Amino acid sequence: MKVTNWGKYPVIDANFKSFTSIDELQSIVKNSDQLVARGLGRCYGDSALSQNIVSTLKYNRILAFDERTEQVTCESGVSLAEIIEAFVPRGWFLPVTPGTKFVTVGGAIASDVHGKNHHIEGSFSNHVTSIDILLSDGSIATCSKTNNSSLFWATCGGMGLTGIILQATFSLKRIESAYIKQKTIKVSNLDAVMEAFEASESYTYSVAWIDCLARGKSQGRSILTLGEHAILPDLKPGTPPLQLPKKLKLAVPLDFPSFALNSLSVKAFNFLYYHKAPDKSTESIIDYDAFFYPLDNIHHWNRIYGKRGFTQYQFVLPRESSKAGLKEILNRISRSGQGSFLAVLKLFGKQDNLISFPKEGYTLALDFAINNKVFPLLDELDKIVLEHGGRLYLTKDVRMNAETFRKSYGNSETFIQLKHQLDPTNKFHSLQSQRLQI
Ligand SMILES: Cc1cc2nc3c(=O)[nH]c(=O)nc-3n(C[C@H](O)[C@H](O)[C@H](O)COP(=O)(O)OP(=O)(O)OC[C@H]3O[C@@H](n4cnc5c(N)ncnc54)[C@H](O)[C@@H]3O)c2cc1C
Question: Does 391 sit in the ligand 1 pocket, CB within 6 Å?
Answer without folding.
Answer: no
